[in-house]
Amino acid sequence: MSNLETEPQARVCGGREDVSGRPVRELLAPKLVPLGESTVVRRLLPNLGRRMVGAWCFVDHYGPDDIESAPGMQVAPHPHTGLQTVSWLHDGEVLHRDSLGSVATVRPRELGLMTAGRAISHAEQSPREHGPRLHGAQLWVALPDRHRGTDPHFEHHPLLPEVSAPGLRATVIMGELDTSRSPGRTFSPLVGADLALTAGASARLPVEPDFEYAVLSMSGRAEVDGVPVEPGSMLYLGCSRRELPLRADSDSALLLLGGEPFEEKLVMWWNFVARTHDEITQAREDWMNGDRFGTVQGYDGPSIPAPELPGIRLKPRGRTR
């Protein structure tokens, strides 16, 4: 999925100095951003106060939207470098096409994972014949320096492992949770899990003390470590936890994101994750000149042009503002 802002801000992310070494409860409000022709998303990362959680560097939550008489998601071909995209749905379908020739329809609770590596382009759209609702999250994972030049590839995993307890079902999207591991390829220690809680449930989820965590509320009324989290908001939790208390007043869905704090400092602009201003400039130039990113076949329409770069040099700094 693309960042479709016409004047995207440069974000400087990474480094361990601003990671809380203790548990915290920092509630992050979303920024509303239009996406494509008919979708508005709630952007949780990068946020005014926090830019990364482990290697997770971008989180958009969208829906639930009524698209019965609308085209739904329509995101034209666009480029990516230096990251992985994770598509996660609760309702609807998304048709993925990329410059490798991959074509896949991602459905609810299936993992669509694209590793951009050195360069890739892709398009995402609701199929012409689609269901009445669209609800999901789009996430990016920053690649460590030693892996960001890797060959691009796409994975579609319809079946994922689950962890269960009374009132709780956790689907492991990325990484490992309570000894269950996702088949999705990872390049740094991290976890992503979809948590489904039944009304009245109370559970304590085991987590890694060396990871920092955040929880995005997808739907329902739930508390995370005693803090009510409304749908579309995210609670940052810091590090040094061994378990995470969860409680639900209604049937609820949460997205758990965590990982070892990302030590490297990086620059993120538009759809590129890099380390320097010059790398961002080169990626933009390559996209606009038709180099390096390939061509997405089968999409009916033009690609998305890159916005103009800001008039200042982009410098990598820390993770929080």
From TrEMBL:
Residue ranges of coiled coil: none
Matching SUPFAM superfamilies: RmlC-like cupins
Domain Pirin C-terminal: 193-293
CDD domains noted in UniProt: cupin_pirin_C (cd02247)
Region described as Disordered: 298-321
Transmembrane segments: none
Pfam families: Pirin, Pirin_C
InterPro entries in the cross-refs: Pirin, Pirin_C_dom, Pirin_N_dom, RmlC-like_jellyroll, RmlC_Cupin_sf
All copies of domain Pirin N-terminal, residue ranges: 45-141
Domain of life: Bacteria
Family statement: Belongs to the pirin family.
Protein name: Pirin family protein
Annotated source species: Streptacidiphilus cavernicola
